[in-house]
Design a protein that fits this description.
The structure is a homodimer. Chain A is α+β, with helices and mostly antiparallel strands and about 210 residues long. The first copy, chain A, has nine helices and six strands; from the N terminus they run αααβααββαααβββα. In chain A, helix 3 crosses helix 5. Chain A binds a DNA duplex (30 and 30 nucleotides) through helix 3, helix 5 and strand 3.
Amino acid sequence: MATHDHIATGLAKIGLFLRAHAWSRAEATGLTPTQAQILVHLVRRGPARVSALAAEIAVTQPTASDSVAALMRKGYIGKRPDPEDGRAAKLHASAAARHAVAEMAVWPDALLEAAADLDPAEQDVLLKALMKMIRALQLRGAIPVQRMCATCQHFRPYQHADAAKPHHCAFVDAAFGNAALRLDCGDHVEADAATQRETWACFTQASA
Amino acid sequence: MATHDHIATGLAKIGLFLRAHAWSRAEATGLTPTQAQILVHLVRRGPARVSALAAEIAVTQPTASDSVAALMRKGYIGKRPDPEDGRAAKLHASAAARHAVAEMAVWPDALLEAAADLDPAEQDVLLKALMKMIRALQLRGAIPVQRMCATCQHFRPYQHADAAKPHHCAFVDAAFGNAALRLDCGDHVEADAATQRETWACFTQASA
DNA sequence: TTGACACGCATAGGACTCCTATTTATCGTT
DNA sequence: AACGATAAATAGGAGTCCTATGCGTGTCAA
C-alpha cells in the first residue's frame, strides 16, 4: 500500500459521491447521469456526433446511441444529417435542453464548498496535480483528448513577471493565474505534439 | 468559473475514467463495477449487512439487494442470519470471491502511474487535500462515515520530531509519514466527536 | 403483554445503462 | 465498380438504479 493507492482510493470515493449525486438529481430533472452529461456537453460545446459523445462520456457507441434515443424521446435533442458526412448525424440541443441545463447545478454544492475550504495554495497544487494526472492518463491512451490549458495552442505558461498572473491565453489575449487554469475549456484548440511538449515542460518545471 | 469548478471538473474526469475502467474489467472477471465493489468490500473488511454495503457504495438498499442477489447466483457470496438481529443477514465472501479479488487489480495501472509521476511533495499535498475534501463532505452529511486516519481513535498526528515520520498509529504502535496516511484503513476505529475535532485541528494546522 | 412504530430486507415494476455482435448505409480508394 | 473502413442503429441480454411497498422482527411504552 503506497501513497498512490491512497490517492486512488480518495479519488474513487469522490467519484462515487459524484455519481450518487448525479442520480439524486434524476428525480427533479428527469435525467439520468448519462443523459445529463450528454446534454451538458451538447449545450456547452455545441452539436456533436454520437461517436464523439460516446468517447466524451467514456461509454461504447451503442450505449451513447441508447441515451441519445432517450433524450430524443424527451424532446431535449434533435438529430440532423451531418452535411460533411452522409453516414453521420449531428445532435443538437433544443431550447428546452438549454433551459434544463441552465437550471441544473453541475457540481454539488458540498463538493465546491469542500474545495473552497482548502487553502488557496493547496487548491493550486491540487488543480495542478489533477492536470498532471489527467495528462499522464491521456499520454497512456487511457482517456481521450482533453481540453485543458496545458495542451492548448493559446496557452503560454509563465510569460509574465507578475507572480499572481503568470500565464497568458492568446485566445482572450489576457494574463491569468494558476487558479484560473482550465481542465475543460470551451475555446481549447489542440496544439501540435512538439508545441505541447514544450509548453508542458515550461509549465511543469516552474511549478515548484 | 472559479478554481473550485476546475477542481470539480478534474475530479469528475478521473471518476469517469475509473468507472470506465471498472466496466472494461467486467468481461474478464464477470463482475460489473458494482458487484466488484461489493466483493472487494466483503473480502477486505469481512461480513457485512446489505444496508451497510448500500451505504458504502452509495446506492439505495434495493439496488444493493439486486447486486447481492447477482453475486449469490454467481456463487461469490453466501448469506447467514445475523445472530445479533433477527431481521438482518450477514453476507460472507466465498473462497471463490477471495480468489477473484486477489486476481483483480483494484486500481488501474495508468492511474497509479499517473500518481507516481507527481513529485513526492505534490503527492503529499494531493493526498492531504483529498482527505480534507472527504472530511468536508462527511461533515456536510454528503457521504457516509469514512475510515481515514484523521477520524481514527488510533491516530496521533505530529507526535514525533522526525519530519519524515511525524505521525503515530496507536494500533500498530508505530510512527509513519504523510505518504502512508490512509483514507480507508482496515483497522479504523471511529474516535468520538471531541477527539476528532482536536485531532483534526492538530493535523491540519501543521500542514503548511 | 400488547400494540405502535421503527428497522432490515426482499419484491415489484419500470426506465435506463452497458456490454458484444451484427446490420445498414456511406465513405474513400483502388 | 468493387473493396474495406467507418458512422450509427439494432438485437439481445444482464444488470443498475430508482420509488413504492410488503413482510417479519426489534424496541419501547402503556
